[in-house]
Amino acid sequence: MIQAFSVPLIDMRIGDARWESYGDLEALSGRALNAAAGETGEQGAVDILFTNDEEMRHLNSQWRNLDKPTDVLSFPSDGPEIPGQPRHLGDIALGLETALRDAEAMKRPFDAHVSHLLIHGFLHLVGYDHIEAEDAAVMEPLETKILGSLGWPDPYANGPYAGEKDKG
User: Fold this and answer.
1) Is residue 55 a contact partner of residue 98, using CB atoms and an 8 Å limit?
2) Measured distance CA(61)–CA(48) in Å, rounded
3) How far apart (Å, rounded) are the C-alpha atoms in residues 151 and 2?
4) In a domain, 162, yes or no
5) Domains in the chain, number
6) Tens digit of pLDDT for each residue in 135-155?
C-alpha cells in the first residue's frame, strides 16, 4: 500500500507476515523517514520491503556477493525522474531475524532498532556512506541526531555497532 507522509512517499511490502506482529509499520516507517527527510532536506518516494533472513541472504548474495543475511539493504534509484511524479529515491529491505537479534544484543526496543535501520537505509539512498572512516564520521552522527529527535538512543553507544565509529 502507498502511504503519503509529509515528506517522503512510502510504498511498503510485507514479505514475511511475522513483521505484522510488531506494530504499525506504516506509522513507524513514516515517522522515521519523515525525520530523516526533514534533517537531510531530501524528498521523494521510497519502497520498503519487510522480509526475512532467507530473502536478505539471497539479496545480499545477488547484489553484494556476500552469502549471509543482513539487517538492512539499500538500493538507490538510478532511474530518470519522471515529470509530474515524485523522485524515486530507491528501495530499502529489512530482515526480521537479524534485526531482532541485533535489537536484543543492544538491549533496545525493537521499534528503536527498526527506526535506526530505516534511517540508515534512507541515508544510503540519498548518498551517505560509512565504509571509509571520514564518511562514517558524517553519517553516524547524523543517524544519531535523527534518532535522538525521535527520542531513541545512540545506536553506536553499545551492542553490535559500538565499534563502528572506529572502523575504516
Assistant:
1) no
2) 19
3) 26
4) no
5) 1
6) 889 999 999 999 999 999 888
